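Internal tracking record. Fields below are filled automatically when a chain is submitted to the structure queue. Please do not edit lines marked as system-generated. If the sequence contains nonstandard residues, flag them in the REMARKS field before resubmitting.
Queue: standard
Priority: normal
Entity type: single polypeptide chain
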Amino acid sequence: QQARAVGAYFANTQFTKIYASPLPRARDTAQAVLDAQPTPKPPHDFTITQIREQSFGAAEGHQTCIREPGKTLEAHFAEDKYPILYESEKHVAFPGGESVEDLTRRAERAVKEVVLPHVVNVARSGRDEHIALVSHGLCIAQVVSAIVRLGGGTWKRKGPMVNTAWVRVEVRIQGGMPVEVADDEVPPVEVTVTDEARADHLEGLVR
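SYSTEM-GENERATED OUTPUT FOLLOWS
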């Protein structure tokens, strides 16, 4: 229901291309958005591994716990206990998983490989493009932050997002167009987060 609702909400938004993580919930949500698009349907790629959710490795499927005083993280892990990590521990990963720093680097690759080519196209052609990336809460926050950094700014999400909530980021080319720019070059841009954690499409849904 939520996926169909967000698809219907964006039915009159003409996307240049729709991207998605290959994990089932993101892929199915992206398919619902694509299904609701007018014909001809926009091109799409639902295999973007760079926007998968953060991996928690051995902690997947386990409840997090409060850290026991005097016990190291490694000692907790050895007992299959996975404490909540502190804000200062962005470099720490559960066994076999990703740290926040790992996720940040992956999000930056996603922006460089998926988003930047569209920015370059707009700079060269002067024609607007509107893409959708269907991902997961923690990864979305890192991707949005990475896009904002293209313009030299910083961004931090205000709180968690409900399922199928969306964020809109506007990237505007500065100094007029067209611009001669290399494929991997960031043209001068202004980046604005115009909408955050929007979920208007869920109003009135009945479980």
